[in-house]
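User: Some background: our group keeps a shared notebook of sequences we're curious about, and every so often someone picks one and asks for a predicted structure to add to the entry. Today it's my turn. The entry only has the sequence so far, pasted here. Could you supply the structure so I can complete it?
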Amino acid sequence: MSDSPLPPGSRIAIAGASGLIGSELARSLRADGHQVVRLVRHAPRSTDEVRWDPQRQRIDAAGLLGCAAVVNLAGAGVASRPWTQAYKKQIRDSRVLGTATLAEAVASLDEPPRVFVNGSAIGFYGDTGSRAVDESAPPGEGFLSSVCVEWEEATAPAREAGVRTVLPRTGLVVSRAGGAWAKLFPLFKAGLGGRLGDGRQYWSFIALHDEVAAIRHLMDTESVSGPVNLTAPDPLTNREITEAMGRVLHRPAVLATPAPLMRLALGEMSGEILGSQRVLPTRLLESGFTFAFPSIDGTLRAALG
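Assistant: Of course. Here's the predicted structure to add to the notebook entry:
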């Protein structure tokens, strides 16, 4: 099967189009002349909106007719609130139920899209310590790992209907506009930044620019399906990233947040921050993708742009 980009003017549906990645993906697609359809939870206010209710697993499937691609990036923020049992359920349901809703809708269409891109995360691997892992590694242990497993399994209806299904397992997206770095940049600019815990845990990062470019690459590359890690090719430790932040921002980065204090303040969520994930983008590189910002210094400068 030959790889070919989506034709100009293609209709592309995005769930999570108001989020950090989704909004930038929509902007990029529109800039290239594609028609972006946004899945929304309110009554549609314009022709580019389609209503869905992932919690009740309802969607106006007719709104997906004619779409060359459906992209699902929806999900409650992992670090938005403390991990109470109620919020952990929301994190899981927002991903698993939303994915099942879209996968079933895609499978029901007489003319399904060419590709279904359904977000996942490197949380799939759990804590890998200093061991490098790629897409061949099994799932790890812990809450986020179990969520990722269910999240990916929920795409089954689309896969079984013969729709090419891609699962981008995203790392830590570096941007001033959202995610972890939206909180880190102000601290480091104020000279209050530093390593977290002992700083030896690996952080697998990716520039927002490369994240969007990689998703578009996966949409266009017909030979790729299944899980694909979206991380820069050289994961670094938290200590190394801290040093790079100080270097790029010309600020001291000598403060440190002790692990016990983080556990006290963040509870179970602290395990994800102090945990180590050394994840390699093997399948992405094998598919011919080229990173614009492979290094942490370039990634940070692009985010500060």
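Suggested note for the entry: The domain at 11-304 is CATH 3.40.50.720 (Rossmann fold). The first strand starts at residue 11 and ends at 15.
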